[in-house]
Amino acid sequence: MRDRSTLMAMVVLAVGLAACDRVPLLAPTNSTITLSASTRVLPLNGSTGLSAFVTESSGTPVQNGTTVRFTTTLGTVQPAETQTVNGLAVATFMAGTSSGVADIRAISGGATGTGTGTTTATNAVQITIGAAAVNAITVRANPSTVGPNGGPVELIATVVSESGNGLQGIPVTFNADQGVLTAQTTSTDTNGEARTVLTTAQRTSVTATAGTKTSTALIVDVRAGPGVSITCAPTSGTGTNCASIQPGVGNTAAVLFTVTKATGTSNLRDVTMTFGDGTSQSLGNLSGGATTVTHTYSGPSGSGPNAYTATAQATDVNGETSSTSTTVVVLPRAPLSVTITAAKGTASNAQVPFTLTANVTGAADVVEYAWDFDDGSTATTSGNVVQHFYAENSAIRTVKVTVKTSDGRTATGQTQINP
Description:
By secondary structure, the protein is mainly β. The chain has 1 helix and 33 strands. The protein has one helix at residues 2-22; strands spanning 32-37, 41-42, 47-55, 67-72, 76-78, 81-83, 88-94, 100-107, 124-129, 136-142, 145-146, 151-160, 171-176, 180-181, 185-187, 193-200, 204-210, 213-214, 218-222, 228-234, 252-261, 268-274, 280-282, 290-298, 306-316, 321-330, 337-344, 351-361, 366-372, 378-381, 385-391, 397-405, 410-417. Strands 11, 13, 15, 17, 18 and 19 form a 6-stranded mixed β-sheet that branches. It has a 5-stranded mixed β-sheet with strand order 2-9-8-4-6, with no helix packed on it. A 4-stranded antiparallel β-sheet has the order 1-3-7-5, with no helix packed on it. The chain starts with a helix and ends with a strand.
C-alpha cells in the first residue's frame, strides 16, 4: 500500500511540474519596461526594430526567458510575443499600407512603464507612418519659366517630416491650372522628392499636396521673346519704296535698312541681317534700341525684276529666336536709247558750224560718245555735246553717235543735217 501511495504522489508531482513548464514566465510585480524603436517615422511598408528592456524593482534585468507581448494600433509586430535575454526582448514593427500613427506597447506580467500616457509611458512608443509624417511640402520648377512658344518644365515637390528630413514613398498630387502634366500623382524618392513634367504655353499656377499638407502656389511664367521690326528705303536708283526700285548707275540699287528692337521684348544677344542675295551681317544686340545698315543690290540683266527677301533674325539671351522680313524689288533698267539734235550756226568762210547734242534715255552713266560725222571724220567725247563744221552747200549728211555706259551697254542714234 505504501508503495502504491508513493507512486501516486510522484505522478501528481510530475503532472504539476509539467503544468508549470507550460505557463509563460512573466515579469514580477513592480518591474519596469522601457520600449524603444530604431526610428519613429516610416514610409508605407517600412519596418523598424523594437527593443523592450525589462528590469525588476531592484533595477536588475528580469530572468532570461521572461515573455514580453507587443501590441499596436496600426501595422503589425513580429513576433507578437518573444522572450528576454539579459532583460532585453526584441521584435520588428511592420508599417503596412496605411498612413497614420501607430501606438505600440510592450507588456509582461506585473511590469509597467513609468508614466501613464501614450507619449509619456516608457513601455509605449508612437511611430508615424506614410503621409501622416508629412510636416511640410514645397514645390519648385526647373527651369522656372517657359519660352514664348511654351515648353516643358520639371516640377519637383520636396516632402519633409517635423525634423526636416525628406520622407520616402509619400504619394504627392500635383495640380496645375494650365498645361498638361505627364503624371499627376507620383511618390517621393529617398531624398523626399517627387517629380513630374508640366508642358505649358501659358502662365501657370502649380501646387503639390502630400497627406494633409499643400504647398504654396508656384507660378511658372512665360518669358518674353525677342522681337524686332524692319523698315527699308532706297538710297540710290529711283523709287519711293523698296518694293519698286529703278536701278541707277552700274545697274545697282542701294537701300537703307532700319532694324528696331520691339518694345517689351527680351534682351537680345545678337541680330543677324540676311540680305537675300547670299550675304549677311551681324548688327549686334541693339543695345541702343535700333541700328541702320546699307546694302547694294544688283539689278536684273533680263526683262524681269530681281526680288530679294531681307530678313532680320533676333536671338535673345535665353536662346529664343524670332525673325521679320521685307522684300526688295529691283526693276529692269529702261531700254538704252539715244537721239541727236543739231543746231546750225552761221556760215563763215564757206564753213557751216553745227552743234550736235546726244540725248540719252535709260542710263545716267554714259562714259563714251563715239561720233561719225559722215564726212570721213569721227570723234570720241566724254560729254554729250560736240561741234562740227561742214562745207557750205555740201551734200546732206547722216550723223551717228554710239553711246557706251559704265556697265558696257551701247546704243546708237542718228540724224540728218543739211549744210
